[in-house]
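User: Show me a protein chain along with its predicted structure.
Assistant: Here is one chain, sequence first, then structure tokens.
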Amino acid sequence: MNTEIVESFSQMVREKSLDKDVLAGIIEEIFGLMVKKKYGLEAKYDVVVNMDKGDIEIFLERSIVDEVVDPATQISIEEVNEKGNDDGLEVGEDYVEKLQLKDFGRRLINLARQSLNQKIREIEKDLIYGEYGEMIGEIVVGDIYQVRRNDVLVNHNKNELLLPRIEQIPREKYRKGDTVRAVVKDVKKTQNGPLIIISRADNLFLRRLFEIEIPEIYDGVIEIRGIAREPGERAKVAVESNDTRIDAVGACVGMKGVRIHAIVRELNNENIDVISYSEDPVVFIQRCIAPAKLKQIEIDEDEKKCTVTADSDQVSLIVGRNGVNIRLAMKLTGYDIEVIRVEKPLEEYDEDVELPELREELGSDIVDLLINNNFETAVEVLKAGLDKLKEIEGIDEAKAKEIIEILENQFEEEED
């Protein structure tokens, strides 16, 4: 029975990478408690565990007396002689007896087994907590084994990792059996064991991908100075080269974009703008909202505010779809950016477009409505502006904004 117990726990040492000495200490502690339950708290004992030989030895030490008062610490000379007094021990001396597990009874042995199993589980939890605590900020690769409504469970080295919805890339599909990469974001202790949270939406995941795909970043030749990201939509990464001979942006993008495309594919086709960092806030802000052309830029460094003046046909480029471009620019630069629209003078447009030519873009009903209100060309509509369009019956503010945006995009495409 001794051998079976030690062998079962030796197997745990191999499978769970538990420290052999720690496990031996636990076995000594548990069997010591078993001795105390049988012989009392005052009992003197010694538990010797040999993990290599697969053996447990329990020794009980008692004083030899004529008449036993405390069986936990005393043994009669008659009992010693019955057990075989080969050493000729006498009253007053100590008698050391080797105990057999079977002498403790099935109930105490089962209790010891349960206590050992519980201790092992606690150690395993602590080991997992420590292991993943050291891996915070590192990328792990695991297999999806369960997709739930609000999270995904990932198997990594036989440990369960949690990918919550908030840490997922929006609109990304997860299927059981798929391999997934993510960064270890946090490790928490719970009653059921460590909760390991991983993320694909965190900025740190994007940073680690850059380090993997771009050797110059991993080696420290190029430094990432900032990241702003809306997962699944768009990201801006500011980089700076510590070697004047190396172009930071070019190195990150790679030949024919091969490096950046690898990251984009991993992030479910999230658009990534790589920007050359500058200590000059004016230059840095201009780079962050490129390719829009600005007429003027004013900086208040104390208030961290920036006012940008641009022609009306450039505003949509500055703001971006659903405002994502300017939001990321503000996150990356740390400045609150205000955009002032300047209506482009009629004479500055190189070419004009007759409204009937825009039936496909605007819709025939809108084109006819504009023509009936004395508009003939796209430039005339842009010149009239939002307020004039809203005065037309059948065109509300939302539709007026849509019309202006379509027409401005039309001229931007021609300029490109």
